[in-house]
Amino acid sequence: MMYGYYKAGRLDQEVVFDLFYRVNPCGNGFVVFAGLEQAVLYLMTLRFTEEEIAYLRQTNLFDEGFLGELAQFRFTGTVHAVSEGTVVFPYEPLLRIEGRLFELQLIESALLCFVNHQSLIATKATRMKLAAQTILFDDGGAISDFGLRRAQNRDASIFGARAAFIGGCSSTSNVAAGFYFGIPVAGTQAHSWIQSFPSELEAFRAYRDAYPDQTVLLVDTYNVLRSGVPNAITVGLELRKEGRDLLGIRIDSGDLAYLSKEARKRLDEAGFTETKIIASDDLDEDTIRDLILQGAAIDAWGVGTALITAKDCPALGGVYKLSAEKVDARYIPKIKVSENPQKVTNPGKKKWVRFYVNERANADLIMLDEEPVPAGEAVTLFDPIHTYKQKTITHYRVREMLQPIIVNGQMVYELPELIEIRAYAEKELRSIPSETLRLKNPHVHHVDLSRELWQLKQKLVQSARM
Amino acid sequence: MMYGYYKAGRLDQEVVFDLFYRVNPCGNGFVVFAGLEQAVLYLMTLRFTEEEIAYLRQTNLFDEGFLGELAQFRFTGTVHAVSEGTVVFPYEPLLRIEGRLFELQLIESALLCFVNHQSLIATKATRMKLAAQTILFDDGGAISDFGLRRAQNRDASIFGARAAFIGGCSSTSNVAAGFYFGIPVAGTQAHSWIQSFPSELEAFRAYRDAYPDQTVLLVDTYNVLRSGVPNAITVGLELRKEGRDLLGIRIDSGDLAYLSKEARKRLDEAGFTETKIIASDDLDEDTIRDLILQGAAIDAWGVGTALITAKDCPALGGVYKLSAEKVDARYIPKIKVSENPQKVTNPGKKKWVRFYVNERANADLIMLDEEPVPAGEAVTLFDPIHTYKQKTITHYRVREMLQPIIVNGQMVYELPELIEIRAYAEKELRSIPSETLRLKNPHVHHVDLSRELWQLKQKLVQSARM
């Protein structure tokens, strides 16, 4: 397509694209936006190497003028985006990008790939975290990412661990993710560790010798209650003599509700009331919630496949759509009409705001960029499909959601530390009504269009029909 | 765990690990093995950088002796594996790795990540390809990977495109995968291309001007039959005047069965009988098969999310298990017993063979490495669980499946070209009975254990029970 624009002499056509998604994944009521840092670093470093240009040359599809354009390619556009960790909803522009058609076309797939992936995994991690908490945002059970071996290749494991941390995970077993992003690394031993020693007890002792202050023992290699827990208690008593304690045990198979309760009883009887019980074994948010409802004595959850691949919903369907084109220094709104009404885009260069009532997110409003942001006066919102559904809000705080990240190719945004993003994401979740956070059949958050935008859309839809 | 082995003085313990999986993904009857090249290149280049060691040092978990071991880390083990593109079944060792416990423990997660991911996507692509073919292995419809924007980050898009090509895809829209692996790159324009021109016809003409010999036009931006197809025919007639032809049209929404048949009729009426119709829009193997059964006039299929994420089954559950330990120059078989009988491992250093009868794969046999391979004499195979189920085969060809890849840290295997791997995978599929290739409820291929291995396993299970 870039070559097509080049041949049509339209490289420098100024345009606006929106990146947004249409449907919340996994039956969730929202998405936790993530992947901005990766997208921004990509844009700021995007170049074509000589080797890449040589490859394109030998395809015999492109002329030399075009390859010359690629050789000097730099991203010179302007990006507005919401912060990583923001709770977002369908149709809201997550990134709004202005610039040369040539550049904005090139970056489409990479931006979508990064944002779709990280936002999906952050959202999935939030679902796990919400499921693990008997009382919302109470301390609840910690979730650890154990997904490396089942991730869809290396980047998915590393950026997936990052996104999972944003979404509420406490740690990862992926040391590379620890190295790149400073995520706390946690792990225990595998069954192969236990097997590789003459006996389970010797295996436990050897692990204790390596990590005396962080001894977590895998107790299900032979038999949890007849062998694993008694041997763990033996090692725990030995640790006691050194003035230390047994940090935890991990159960990775069998009935986790029954086994955890029995193990808790025996640990408590032996005086190990502070020793944590960690559960793993193909866990997902449904199983976590069910185990909690059954009174399982589980303090922390190791989650693998279901988290790192978002197993039941492994793709977020984010899209990247043209919304406006500059003609004589004016933005001309563009629309995509479709047989499928859900796929009709919102035209024009846009911004969006969130209304808070009593510090809870009440509704979001997408509006044209030139419209003034409501500032205290009563606002009447209406559903963009069923327009008779209206509500008026009066005592609200309003917040503009898009902020400048890159302006004319220059970074104007300081990328926050990962730990800050995670804290912000938690704050965001606290601002969302609990009905919207429900894991099944959540309340649908209001995302409305301003009257001006709605009217523009109707007009363009009409004129696009033939 | 590496640190634990170091502290226990067991770094140099010689061991054997098997990499295998237990359950075919996606309801399929087999897996197409892929990811070996990535695994091998990883092993041959694995090093700890100074920066990585500094990171590990500041965790305060490890002593300097251990960090010194890491600094000089090289993979010195021996790897046997099946070739990429081989059709494999549950419990068969796909890689068998011998070497120092220290090294073999480190590589577990990366090997699993690469092999699980690529084997999964190759298998999914094969399902698409089988669905698209009205007659098995007839030319059938081409499948193109359109998944980049929905891939689970960058590696998943690139190695996923590679695996999809092995599994039978004809091309990818991912130019980076073309660059790295020489996969044919194919694409058309997006809706945003059409939108960015004043009219659909002008957009079509501009695309034709860029790719006069490869003009494929997206016809569903406004209305397939009233606008897209008539405009495509107009451009096709213009191409005709230059002595060229219209290569194809793409339909990305609406009822693909109805629209493709109507579009075919109109293209044929206008003399464009050679113009291909390409379909896309959230396709998977079920939809492809249904559309073919409904007589859709579709020549090629662009598949995105369902392929690149293996949407309904996004992880292959490959595992990596200790099978033997060397003591005084002898391999002592090891077993993992589990509450779940499916999780009990096959002990010992093993190899496996495939029996062909009339050039079709008839059964596979896993055996101990020291056992002689059957060579013409009648062989009686029995089901390892329901041992009364037996069969005797006589006129067979036998093939040893594991071959040496790395010996004592040195590559002894020439990595085949990707195009060779793809051709081999197709040959492999032709050797599998069609009942086993069925997409739903396939015949279960026999994977049996030799009597010697079976008896060893029974003995070790008994002695492991307490």
Structure explained in plain terms:
The first copy, chain A, has 466 residues and is of the alpha/beta class. Chain A folds into 2 domains: 2-121 and 314-464, nicotinate phosphoribosyltransferase (Alpha-Beta Barrel); 188-298, TIM Barrel. Chain A has 17 helices and 21 strands. The first copy, chain A, has helices spanning 2-7, 36-45, 50-58, 64-71, 101-106, 108-132, 154-166, 175-181, 191-195, 200-210, 224-241, 256-269, 285-293, 305-308, 418-430, 434-437, 451-464; strands at 14-20, 31-32, 78-81, 87-88, 95-100, 142-145, 171-172, 216-218, 248-251, 276-279, 300-303, 319-327, 330-333, 350-357, 360-368, 379-382, 390-393, 397-400, 403-407, 410-411, 447-449. In chain A, the strands form 5 sheets. A 7-stranded antiparallel β-sheet of chain A has the order 13-12-1-5-3-19-20. The first copy, chain A, is globular. Chains A and B meet through helix 1, helix 3, helix 6, helix 7 and helix 8 of A and helix 1, helix 3, helix 6, helix 7 and helix 8 of B.
List the topology elements.
The structure is a homodimer of 466-residue chains.
Chain A: H1 2-7, E1 14-20, E2 31-32, H2 36-45, H3 50-58, H4 64-71, E3 78-81, E4 87-88, E5 95-100, H5 101-106, H6 108-132, E6 142-145, H7 154-166, E7 171-172, H8 175-181, H9 191-195, H10 200-210, E8 216-218, H11 224-241, E9 248-251, H12 256-269, E10 276-279, H13 285-293, E11 300-303, H14 305-308, E12 319-327, E13 330-333, E14 350-357, E15 360-368, E16 379-382, E17 390-393, E18 397-400, E19 403-407, E20 410-411, H15 418-430, H16 434-437, E21 447-449, H17 451-464
Parallel strand pairs in A: 6-7, 6-11, 8-9, 9-10, 10-11, 15-21
Antiparallel strand pairs in A: 1-5, 1-12, 2-4, 3-5, 3-19, 12-13, 14-15, 14-18, 16-17, 19-20
Helix pairs in contact in A: 2-6, 3-4, 6-7, 6-13, 7-8, 10-11, 11-12
